[in-house]
Write the structure tokens for this entry.
Amino acid sequence: MSSYIDVAHPDRHAPYLDIPDAVIEYLHYLDVVKLRSPRTINGYYLDLRSFFRYMMCIWHPELSDDATPAEQIDLTCITLDQIKTVQKRDIINFLDYARSHSNGSKARARKLSALRGFFGYLGSGYLGEYTDKNGNRIKNPTENISLGAPKKALPKYLSVDESLSLLNNIQSDFYERDFCILTLFLNCGMRLAELVTIDLGDFKDDTIRIVGKGNKERLVYLNNSCKTALSHYLPKRAALPKLIDKQALFVSKRTGKRLTARRVEQIVEKCLQSAGLDGKGYSPHKLRHTAATLMYQGGVDMLALKEILGHENVSTTQIYTHINQAQLRQAVNCSPIANEDYAEPRRSAENELEQDSDEEDI
């Protein structure tokens, strides 16, 4: 299964029939009681599935043979009694296993969060008393496990010249659509999953309604570049001979269906290549960083930028205060002694005698 829910139906999540019943119950709890978004539930599903595949290889060493693909390991046979045997060392070993398979600090922190939530759910008694065969209450195996704060890398972004080069070198059989996609990315700072779920009904006057993480809605104002790009694209979209997803903003020219997240990634990759910007680690999410950086450099207030990007806390937005190199250079040059000329050292007669004495001792 893909790590992304079908973006054409963002309010749905998969039935998840390939995992233990206890995990299915937990995901249902996240959906109905905690009101978590389908994307969040999908992420927890993937992390918990990964953990129990690992545990099945521990419980049944014969499955650890490379001849058994991970997707063929049956997890539906795992019982609640088996899950109760998971100990803290299993959690730690799994996190170490994840690190050895190229999972970075953020990915491991997300996996730990999923496990902490799941075992906390079991400990709360939603599936009955969480006790062992002797009636003793089982402790949450994730208790007191901390990975520390993940490293916060500075976001990678395109310069102004690179952004203009990207827009001016598009080679596509649906130029108006791809230009509009890049323009919205670079001006509105939206996420990939947000862009592909935009419907025609989300536009009103000069604003666009965006549904972000946690199903939280926000309004983003469209500047002249966005409105112009849309005015060129929408007539071309309306003239398509086949239009299956009539409400979707961005559709395939061939099938008339809503573009998937992967298809948009491919479009961006092709445009980057045409502009000579491939191989530099740029992606749709880097275009979001670019929009945020350029707005901040243009003088946008931090709180306003937080609302535009859909961040929960301003602390997340503040990372953009660390990447304006021009401001940093200006800051260090503001010191009253920033332009002090180099002066030859002045020595007193006493210091010269001490220096001569030191030289004689050598």
